[in-house]
Amino acid sequence: MSSNEYSIRVNELGKRYEVYATPRDRMKQFIVPALQRLSGCQPSSYYQEFWALQDISFEIRKGEAFGVVGRNGSGKSTLLQLITGTLAPTVGTVETNGRIAALLELGSGFNPEFTGRENVYLNAMLLGMTREEVEVRFDKIASFADIGAHLDQPVKTYSSGMLVRLAFAVQVQIEPDILIVDEALAVGDALFQKRCFSRIEKLLSDGVTLLFVSHDQESVRTLTHRAILLKGGRAVSMGTASQVLLAYRKLLHEEESAYFAQLTSKPLNDGAASPIGSDKKENLVVLESSELTDKELVQDTPLGRIDQLSFGDGGIEVTSVKTFNRDNEPCSVFYPGDVIRIHVECVSHLETDCINVSVRIRNREGVKIYSWGTLNQDMQILAGLREGDVFWKRRIHVGERFDVRLECDCTLGPNLYEIQAAVSYEGRPDYTAQRLLHWKDEAAFFQTLIRQDEYFFGGLSDLRMVAKW
């Protein structure tokens, strides 16, 4: 890639901190090694090394939207600070082309004693604008921030939401070549977030490069083209946004499972326990209790060899997901008003109850449209809002194959839809004690079309509006 084709280039980047046990060790490090070098001795170290970031390399093309995901402490904010130049790297290089606008920390660059108006001028001029340019754009900045009379109050009196409103309003008005956003928008209210995302989409359409950090997976999927996943300061996955977010969900699931494993003290039944991947059926554990431990959940099962689109603790597997029409005929194209039937087939490798089979539907743009499962219906039955058998109480046996048929009216706008399927163990019938046994991305697809001349509407979903006069 030539230099004029990229906005950001990161090469073998690393940031190391020196961690001292006591202030005395810090003082020793300042004095003793220098004296040892003068005397020809090997200098001593009085600190421990901590690498907040290590061996990070990627390139972002001009006009590309790039996401950064990872748990707290994974190195996301450090990476952004290195790119913006507020931190100096220990090793490696960062190259950027163009004016950068960065929204990293609430109120960064603001003087708490100055008013909002004064800080707008101060912040914008620090970002390279002249006073005349600020005056031309000031009304737009004030309108976007929408904090009213508080604009002439000291910033130290602002709430976190007001701070981020003002900061974002300034950053997007400097017409950046690169916009860097780090979680700050999460503190805004829903209306302000909508306004921010609309503005970001406008900047992207104008060719601005976006580097976006968020824990909101749907926002990353919707706004970015590619992404990187960080763990412990290192890159563990990089690729399309959907691929990286799947790896992120797997990582979160693995860490959650490890956490619950530490809490689990219930021993395995006698004769239990073959490791994942064993092919001997006689090693399967038959559970006599509805309480599943981590070790019991990951017995001999095909999930020991999880494919790229699946993850989970194992124990019960989603084998297939199919869509049918009102007449139970296989169908993958629906029109508003049709009935959509989704059949989720599963096979169990253990004996248990407390199971939930669910689906999530996303459109082509990656936006989650709907999620629902058998537990949602069970909760209504248990609350006395509807009648029927509670699936959560059903006993499922080793080797049993079972299917769940989910049905709904098609109220979706024209698009291509992905069905994600999952089977989970629910310790309580309220989604507060969930263990994911098997999650399957891209389990099935279907398309919705619209008949322009008889049943037409615009948008994601049909609200079945009526007109009266």
Q: How would you portray this structure in words?
A:
- Mean pLDDT is 82; it is low at 265-291 and 294-306.
- The protein folds into two domains: 3-243, P-loop containing nucleotide triphosphate hydrolases (Rossmann fold); 280-448, Coagulation Factor XIII, Chain A, domain 1 (Distorted Sandwich).
- Strand 17 and strand 18 form a beta hairpin.
- The protein is an alpha/beta fold.
- 26% of the residues lie in helices and 30% in strands.
- The protein has helices spanning 23-38, 76-84, 116-126, 131-145, 160-173, 190-205, 217-223, 241-263, 294-297, 374-382; strands at residues 6-19, 48-61, 65-69, 91-96, 100-103, 178-182, 209-213, 226-231, 234-240, 310-311, 316-324, 333-334, 339-348, 355-363, 368-373, 401-409, 415-426, 434-448.
- Helix 3 (116-126) packs across helix 4 (131-145) and helix 3 (116-126) packs across helix 5.
- The strands form four sheets. A six-stranded mixed beta sheet has the order 5-6-7-3-8-9, sandwiched between helices. Strands 10, 12, 14, 15, 17 and 18 form a six-stranded mixed beta sheet that branches. Strands 2-1-4 form a three-stranded antiparallel beta sheet, with helices on one face.
- The chain is built from ten helices and 18 strands.
- It comes from Chitinivorax tropicus.
- InterPro entries: AAA+_ATPase, ABC_transporter-like_ATP-bd, ABC_transporter-like_CS, ABC_transpr_TagH-like, Bact_Polysacc_Export_ATP-bd, P-loop_NTPase, Wzt_C.
